[in-house]
């Protein structure tokens, strides 16, 4: 049976890099993969961007109201059609894996769609994302993935002090902030730093939410 995997880690733990490497590994063996990410993640527009400089266009974006399984099936049908028409050189003529970046931004219902893709459609799904926001609250998509994914894998990174980082501190300019909307995409105005529990508490004045 195909499985739903949730590979999670704090910011800068190499999630997008790992996703792109997984896609490469499948394709090196002549298999087809589909890449997707939530449309709310405007960084990179319709591309997955690794902090190491690698980029790749996604096959589809998932809007807040979209049926993720229906979008997957549309793209799966496209791959099958192109393979049948001889437009794709590789065999077999089907999708081997779905890879989803920034999965924390999915709705719980869309995570359920990913589960059904794995269990009912027989296609492994590798979802990559972070567990918690800058206030240590679980993202709804991540909470659902932690609840129903067949396999959970942590991608580790370190804090500035050398300890294991588990939290995501939000910076506006040079200052950490602990108020604001849950979603603020990393960019020119807002940046994030991976922190261990000790450094997070120091920056927040002991606040955890």
Automatic annotation (TrEMBL):
ATP binds at residues 9-16, 101-104. GO terms for molecular function: thymidine kinase activity. InterPro entries: P-loop_NTPase (IPR027417), Thymidine_kinase (IPR001267). It catalyses: thymidine + ATP = dTMP + ADP + H(+). Zn(2+) binds at residues 159, 161, 196, 199. It is found in: Cytoplasm. Its EC number is 2.7.1.21. The active site is at 102 (proton acceptor). Keywords: ATP-binding, Cytoplasm, DNA synthesis, Kinase, Metal-binding, Nucleotide-binding, Transferase, Zinc. Belongs to the thymidine kinase family. This is Thymidine kinase.
